[in-house]
Amino acid sequence: DSPRTIFSGIQPTGIPHIGNYLGALQQWGQLQEEGHRVIYSIVDMHSITVPQDPAQLRENIFDMTACLLACGIDPDKSILFQQSSVSQHAELAWVLGCKATMARLKHLPQWKAKSGSKEEGGVGLFTYPILQAADILLYKASHVPIGVDQVQHLQLAQDLATTFNYHYGQYFPLPKAILGETKKVQSLRKPNSKMSKSEADPKSRIDLTDPPDVVREKMKKAITDFNSSVTYDPDTRPGVSNLVRIHSACTGLSYDEICRQNEGIETAKYKFVVADAVIAKMDPIRTEILRLQKDRGFLEGVLREGARKARDIAEKTYSDVKKLVGF
Ligand code: ADP
Ligand code: NA
């Protein structure tokens, strides 16, 4: 296997929840241990496709930096940077956008979901998959860790790379998805939908900064069903199965092992077993986030150094692109 260039981005939307960690960030930390070139971006330019309070956005960027570091992203092994610090993202997005069609973008899920397909939706919301393609191609990424929800956007990046190569000469490698094992975490309040920051009820998710008593309280309120036993059957028992999945992701135990170990335990009691597993896994991360949040100077330094390394690559790519395009 030749060395990969791995790129992924996350929006600075506040403190991540355990779904973000178990479904994405944990894997981000592992990928940097495998000898690849790994680049992670806090994609603040994507954030402003929906309304943002400027002071809050600024805080969120530092919070996300602290969280990524606490989750194991090591700035000596990965390039960790803020997207808006590298102007070539916007420049390459323009070039790629000139090769994208309205018809293609209209069918992408982010536009359908957030704009309600209304023509009054922001132009940025419509075009941001092009910016995502630029994020990836600017580093000539060969692999992109994504959730299943992002597959169509990665296909757009592949299509734009193909179109660019067709018009201007073979230049961009086609980025492949790393889907990993999908550790999808469901909402604690609506177990048929995924745990998400966009759900209004804060009890629906466990944030990485929730202290142990809050974790126990939220687990206690998790929606299950009237069958008081521990089994794994996501179709008929989504609530308790979600708890088993969280338990498994936090301990490495299989669903079978968990169900066997907790046979005969009432669901109400089992919730505290899961809470303890979550606390054991996540509390060191919480402690580290709190420590890093107090060290603004350190976080600024990490982002500054990351931007410098990212810019080195981005400038090279974009200067090649300019020549190919005829600028
Ligand atoms: P949210 O839906 O909370 O806004 P994002 O869309 O910002 O989360 O997702 C950030 C990353 O976390 C993505 O890679 C996404 O696939 C992953 N992710 C988000 N929610 C979950 C979840 N409930 N379970 C597993 N992974 C998730
Ligand atoms: Na989302």
From TrEMBL:
What segment(s) does the record annotate as region Disordered? Answer: 188-210
Protein location: Mitochondrion matrix
What protein does this entry describe?
Answer: Tryptophan--tRNA ligase, mitochondrial
Record-level Gene Ontology MF annotations:
ATP binding; tryptophan-tRNA ligase activity
Function according to Swiss-Prot or TrEMBL: Catalyzes the attachment of tryptophan to tRNA(Trp) in a two-step reaction: tryptophan is first activated by ATP to form Trp-AMP and then transferred to the acceptor end of tRNA(Trp).
Q: Name one GO cellular component term.
A: mitochondrion
InterPro entries recorded for this chain? aa-tRNA-synth_I_CS, aa-tRNA-synth_Ic, Rossmann-like_a/b/a_fold, Trp-tRNA-ligase, Trp-tRNA-ligase_bac-type, Trp-tRNA_synthetase
- EC numbers listed for it are 6.1.1.2
Lineage of producing organism: Eukaryota, Metazoa, Chordata, Cephalochordata, Leptocardii
- Biased composition regions of type Basic and acidic residues, renumbered to the chain: 196-210
Q: Does the keyword Protein biosynthesis apply?
A: yes
Superkingdom, natural source: Eukaryota
Pfam hit, one: tRNA-synt_1b
Q: Which SUPFAM superfamilies match?
A: Nucleotidylyl transferase
List the coiled-coil residues. none
Catalyzed reactions:
tRNA(Trp) + L-tryptophan + ATP = L-tryptophyl-tRNA(Trp) + AMP + diphosphate + H(+)
Keyword annotations of the record: Aminoacyl-tRNA synthetase, ATP-binding, Ligase, Nucleotide-binding, Protein biosynthesis
| Protein family (similarity comment) | Belongs to the class-I aminoacyl-tRNA synthetase family.
Look up and give the organism this protein is from: Branchiostoma floridae (Florida lancelet)
